[in-house]
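To make the argument concrete, we let one protein speak, a sequence paired with a row of C-alpha coordinates, as a model reads it:
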Amino acid sequence: MASLKVYSVGRLVKHITDSSLRSLRGNIYRSSVRGYSTEEKAAEDSSGDKQMPTTLEDCHKQIETLSTEVSTLKQQLKDYEDKYKRALADGENVRRRMMKQVEDAKSFAIQSFCKDLLDVADTLSAAADSVPERAEAHAESAAAALRSLHDGLRLTRAQLDQVFARHGLVAVSPLREKFDPNLHEALFTQEVEGFEPGTVVTVSKVGYKLHERCVRPALVGVAKG
Protein backbone atom coordinates (compact mmCIF):
# COMPACT_ATOMS: atom_id res chain seq x y z
CA MET A 1 0.00 0.00 0.00
CA ALA A 2 2.89 2.37 0.87
CA SER A 3 4.65 1.56 -2.42
CA LEU A 4 1.49 2.44 -4.38
CA LYS A 5 1.35 5.85 -2.70
CA VAL A 6 4.98 6.52 -3.48
CA TYR A 7 4.43 5.59 -7.14
CA SER A 8 1.40 7.93 -7.40
CA VAL A 9 3.30 10.82 -5.80
CA GLY A 10 6.18 10.28 -8.25
CA ARG A 11 3.90 10.43 -11.27
CA LEU A 12 2.24 13.58 -9.93
CA VAL A 13 5.64 15.27 -9.46
CA LYS A 14 6.72 14.32 -12.99
CA HIS A 15 3.48 15.66 -14.47
CA ILE A 16 3.87 18.96 -12.61
CA THR A 17 7.50 19.22 -13.67
CA ASP A 18 6.73 18.58 -17.38
CA SER A 19 3.88 21.10 -17.34
CA SER A 20 6.10 23.72 -15.74
CA LEU A 21 8.85 23.18 -18.32
CA ARG A 22 6.42 23.46 -21.22
CA SER A 23 4.93 26.65 -19.78
CA LEU A 24 8.40 28.09 -19.22
CA ARG A 25 9.47 27.31 -22.80
CA GLY A 26 6.33 28.97 -24.19
CA ASN A 27 6.91 32.10 -22.13
CA ILE A 28 10.55 32.32 -23.28
CA TYR A 29 9.53 31.92 -26.97
CA ARG A 30 6.81 34.57 -26.75
CA SER A 31 9.17 36.94 -24.97
CA SER A 32 11.82 36.50 -27.63
CA VAL A 33 9.30 37.02 -30.45
CA ARG A 34 7.96 40.20 -28.84
CA GLY A 35 11.50 41.44 -28.29
CA TYR A 36 12.42 40.82 -31.92
CA SER A 37 9.29 42.54 -33.21
CA THR A 38 9.91 45.52 -30.95
CA GLU A 39 13.51 45.81 -32.09
CA GLU A 40 12.53 45.51 -35.78
CA LYS A 41 9.84 48.16 -35.42
CA ALA A 42 12.27 50.43 -33.62
CA ALA A 43 14.83 49.92 -36.39
CA GLU A 44 12.21 50.78 -39.04
CA ASP A 45 11.17 53.85 -37.09
CA SER A 46 14.78 54.93 -36.74
CA SER A 47 15.42 54.42 -40.47
CA GLY A 48 12.26 56.39 -41.29
CA ASP A 49 13.42 59.13 -38.99
CA LYS A 50 16.72 59.25 -40.81
CA GLN A 51 14.97 59.83 -44.18
CA MET A 52 12.92 62.74 -42.91
CA PRO A 53 14.63 66.13 -43.00
CA THR A 54 15.22 67.66 -39.62
CA THR A 55 16.07 71.25 -40.59
CA LEU A 56 14.81 73.82 -43.06
CA GLU A 57 18.05 73.59 -45.01
CA ASP A 58 17.61 69.85 -45.36
CA CYS A 59 14.08 70.45 -46.63
CA HIS A 60 15.38 72.82 -49.31
CA LYS A 61 18.05 70.34 -50.36
CA GLN A 62 15.55 67.54 -50.61
CA ILE A 63 13.18 69.75 -52.62
CA GLU A 64 16.00 70.64 -55.02
CA THR A 65 16.88 66.98 -55.41
CA LEU A 66 13.28 66.03 -56.12
CA SER A 67 12.93 68.94 -58.58
CA THR A 68 16.03 67.76 -60.45
CA GLU A 69 14.65 64.24 -60.62
CA VAL A 70 11.31 65.52 -61.90
CA SER A 71 13.06 67.60 -64.59
CA THR A 72 15.10 64.58 -65.66
CA LEU A 73 11.99 62.41 -65.87
CA LYS A 74 10.18 65.06 -67.91
CA GLN A 75 13.09 65.25 -70.36
CA GLN A 76 13.15 61.47 -70.67
CA LEU A 77 9.41 61.45 -71.30
CA LYS A 78 9.85 64.09 -74.00
CA ASP A 79 12.61 62.06 -75.64
CA TYR A 80 10.50 58.91 -75.58
CA GLU A 81 7.53 60.75 -77.09
CA ASP A 82 9.76 62.14 -79.85
CA LYS A 83 11.15 58.68 -80.61
CA TYR A 84 7.62 57.26 -80.63
CA LYS A 85 6.41 59.90 -83.09
CA ARG A 86 9.42 59.33 -85.32
CA ALA A 87 8.78 55.60 -85.29
CA LEU A 88 5.15 56.18 -86.27
CA ALA A 89 6.20 58.51 -89.11
CA ASP A 90 8.77 56.00 -90.38
CA GLY A 91 6.20 53.23 -90.28
CA GLU A 92 3.71 55.36 -92.23
CA ASN A 93 6.35 56.21 -94.86
CA VAL A 94 7.23 52.55 -95.26
CA ARG A 95 3.55 51.67 -95.64
CA ARG A 96 3.06 54.33 -98.32
CA ARG A 97 6.15 53.22 -100.24
CA MET A 98 4.96 49.62 -100.16
CA MET A 99 1.51 50.62 -101.39
CA LYS A 100 3.11 52.67 -104.20
CA GLN A 101 5.27 49.71 -105.21
CA VAL A 102 2.25 47.41 -105.22
CA GLU A 103 0.26 49.87 -107.35
CA ASP A 104 3.19 50.26 -109.77
CA ALA A 105 3.52 46.49 -110.03
CA LYS A 106 -0.17 46.22 -110.93
CA SER A 107 -0.08 49.11 -113.41
CA PHE A 108 3.15 48.23 -115.22
CA ALA A 109 2.94 44.44 -115.18
CA ILE A 110 2.12 44.43 -118.92
CA GLN A 111 4.84 46.92 -119.87
CA SER A 112 7.07 44.40 -121.66
CA PHE A 113 4.06 42.94 -123.47
CA CYS A 114 2.97 46.38 -124.67
CA LYS A 115 6.49 47.19 -125.78
CA ASP A 116 6.61 44.05 -127.91
CA LEU A 117 3.34 45.04 -129.60
CA LEU A 118 4.62 48.46 -130.62
CA ASP A 119 6.62 47.10 -133.56
CA VAL A 120 3.48 45.31 -134.75
CA ALA A 121 1.57 48.57 -134.54
CA ASP A 122 4.29 50.37 -136.50
CA THR A 123 4.20 47.76 -139.25
CA LEU A 124 0.42 47.92 -139.43
CA SER A 125 0.50 51.71 -139.64
CA ALA A 126 3.08 51.60 -142.39
CA ALA A 127 0.95 49.12 -144.33
CA ALA A 128 -2.15 51.28 -143.93
CA ASP A 129 -0.30 54.42 -145.03
CA SER A 130 1.13 52.68 -148.08
CA VAL A 131 -2.34 52.12 -149.49
CA PRO A 132 -3.86 55.33 -150.87
CA GLU A 133 -7.37 56.16 -149.79
CA ARG A 134 -8.49 56.28 -153.42
CA ALA A 135 -6.53 53.75 -155.38
CA GLU A 136 -6.57 54.25 -159.12
CA ALA A 137 -6.45 50.90 -160.85
CA HIS A 138 -7.17 49.89 -164.41
CA ALA A 139 -9.41 47.09 -163.35
CA GLU A 140 -12.47 47.83 -161.30
CA SER A 141 -11.97 44.69 -159.18
CA ALA A 142 -8.42 45.73 -158.30
CA ALA A 143 -9.64 49.14 -157.12
CA ALA A 144 -12.32 47.49 -154.96
CA ALA A 145 -9.74 45.11 -153.45
CA LEU A 146 -7.41 47.99 -152.63
CA ARG A 147 -10.22 49.94 -151.01
CA SER A 148 -11.23 46.89 -148.98
CA LEU A 149 -7.61 46.35 -147.89
CA HIS A 150 -7.26 50.00 -146.95
CA ASP A 151 -10.46 49.99 -144.89
CA GLY A 152 -9.46 46.76 -143.12
CA LEU A 153 -6.05 48.12 -142.21
CA ARG A 154 -7.54 51.35 -140.91
CA LEU A 155 -10.13 49.49 -138.85
CA THR A 156 -7.52 47.13 -137.41
CA ARG A 157 -5.26 50.03 -136.53
CA ALA A 158 -8.17 51.84 -134.81
CA GLN A 159 -9.06 48.74 -132.80
CA LEU A 160 -5.44 48.33 -131.75
CA ASP A 161 -5.35 51.94 -130.59
CA GLN A 162 -8.49 51.32 -128.53
CA VAL A 163 -6.90 48.28 -126.88
CA PHE A 164 -3.78 50.31 -126.10
CA ALA A 165 -5.80 53.13 -124.60
CA ARG A 166 -7.87 50.74 -122.50
CA HIS A 167 -4.71 49.43 -120.88
CA GLY A 168 -3.14 52.87 -120.41
CA LEU A 169 -0.79 52.81 -123.42
CA VAL A 170 -0.91 56.22 -125.11
CA ALA A 171 0.87 57.38 -128.28
CA VAL A 172 3.25 60.34 -128.08
CA SER A 173 3.41 62.37 -131.31
CA PRO A 174 4.90 65.71 -130.25
CA LEU A 175 4.91 67.64 -133.54
CA ARG A 176 5.22 71.40 -132.87
CA GLU A 177 5.59 70.74 -129.14
CA LYS A 178 8.50 71.64 -126.90
CA PHE A 179 11.22 69.00 -126.80
CA ASP A 180 10.98 66.85 -123.67
CA PRO A 181 14.02 64.62 -123.02
CA ASN A 182 11.87 62.37 -120.83
CA LEU A 183 9.55 61.50 -123.74
CA HIS A 184 11.50 62.38 -126.87
CA GLU A 185 14.78 61.35 -128.47
CA ALA A 186 16.38 63.88 -130.84
CA LEU A 187 17.76 62.39 -134.03
CA PHE A 188 18.91 65.70 -135.50
CA THR A 189 18.59 69.45 -135.20
CA GLN A 190 18.07 71.93 -138.00
CA GLU A 191 17.12 75.52 -138.57
CA VAL A 192 13.49 75.81 -139.63
CA GLU A 193 11.64 79.05 -140.20
CA GLY A 194 8.53 79.54 -138.13
CA PHE A 195 9.69 77.24 -135.32
CA GLU A 196 11.19 78.38 -132.06
CA PRO A 197 14.45 76.75 -130.95
CA GLY A 198 13.82 73.53 -129.04
CA THR A 199 10.54 72.80 -130.85
CA VAL A 200 9.88 69.44 -132.50
CA VAL A 201 9.70 69.97 -136.28
CA THR A 202 9.32 66.37 -137.41
CA VAL A 203 8.39 63.01 -135.89
CA SER A 204 10.23 60.06 -137.42
CA LYS A 205 8.74 57.48 -135.08
CA VAL A 206 5.83 57.83 -132.67
CA GLY A 207 6.60 57.23 -129.00
CA TYR A 208 4.44 55.61 -126.34
CA LYS A 209 3.91 55.97 -122.60
CA LEU A 210 2.21 53.56 -120.20
CA HIS A 211 0.42 55.25 -117.30
CA GLU A 212 2.64 58.35 -117.68
CA ARG A 213 5.79 56.20 -117.84
CA CYS A 214 7.71 56.33 -121.09
CA VAL A 215 8.09 52.87 -122.65
CA ARG A 216 9.46 54.15 -125.98
CA PRO A 217 10.60 57.70 -126.69
CA ALA A 218 9.41 59.45 -129.83
CA LEU A 219 12.19 59.85 -132.44
CA VAL A 220 12.09 63.48 -133.48
CA GLY A 221 13.92 66.30 -135.22
CA VAL A 222 14.33 69.53 -133.26
CA ALA A 223 14.62 73.12 -134.43
CA LYS A 224 17.80 74.90 -133.43
CA GLY A 225 18.37 78.60 -132.93
